[in-house]
Design brief:
Length: 210
């Protein structure tokens, strides 16, 4: 029995790796952008494969963008398991839309994905990569982009909008000089001179008293 089990394990086919999707751009995208997508590692010679912009984990056709928007296309796989379009190109063009499968793609990072699947054979032929639309959860920076305002009042995105306040001093800084505009050290020097003069007048008077 143990020998038979070992034989079964020896001839069992290796598990197929998930397909790999490469896209020309996945972050900072917006509706109307066209990206180039390649898919490798699928089962060879599949005749019906869908590729497009979808909500995460698509299972039904309406979980993805409609084909007439350019957000999804039908294709196949070649003998090497690469996705190919109907005209035989490995470079699929996907035109991004604002919503896919009812999901608002700009709501947050990963709200929509680029997904591929071969209906009826989804297991080894399904994969997806997340999309991040511009304004969909990007970090803020010093000039207030990403949701924060330039005057530092906003806290949108990851930044707090620290920019906008001037780096140089302004007229509101406290005045460290004398009221009439003379430097403080000049007033101090004058006071010392006056005190010294008074002392010189007092010393001779004391000598005359003695």
């Amino acid at each position: 029995m143990a020998l038979a089990g070992a034989c079964v394990l020896a001839v069992a086919p290796p598990a197929l790796a998930a397909p790999k999707i490469n896209a020309s751009k996945t972050t900072g995208v917006k509706a109307g952008d066209t990206i180039t997508v390649q898919v490798t590692g699928m089962t060879p010679n599949e005749t019906f494969v869908t590729l497009g912009q979808c909500k995460p984990g698509p299972k039904l056709p309406n979980d993805c963008a409609a084909q007439d928007t350019g957000g999804a296309i039908l294709g196949a796989t070649d003998a090497e398991g690469n996705f190919v379009t109907k005209d035989g190109s490995k470079d699929a063009k996907i035109k991004l839309v604002a919503e896919a499968g009812g999901a608002d793609c700009a709501a947050k990072a990963g709200a929509c994905v680029i997904a591929v699947t071969a209906p009826g054979n989804q297991g080894p032929n399904s994969a997806e990569i997340p999309l991040t639309f511009a304004g969909g959860g990007g970090g803020g920076d010093g000039d207030g982009s990403g949701g924060g305002s330039g005057d530092g009042g906003g806290t949108g995105g990851g930044g707090t909008g620290g920019g906008g306040t001037g780096g140089g001093g302004s007229g509101d800084l406290p005045n460290t000089g004398s009221p009439d505009g003379l430097p403080t050290y000049a007033m101090i020097a004058s006071a010392l001179v006056m005190a010294g003069g008074a002392a010189l007048l007092i010393i001779p008077r004391r000598r005359r008293d003695h």
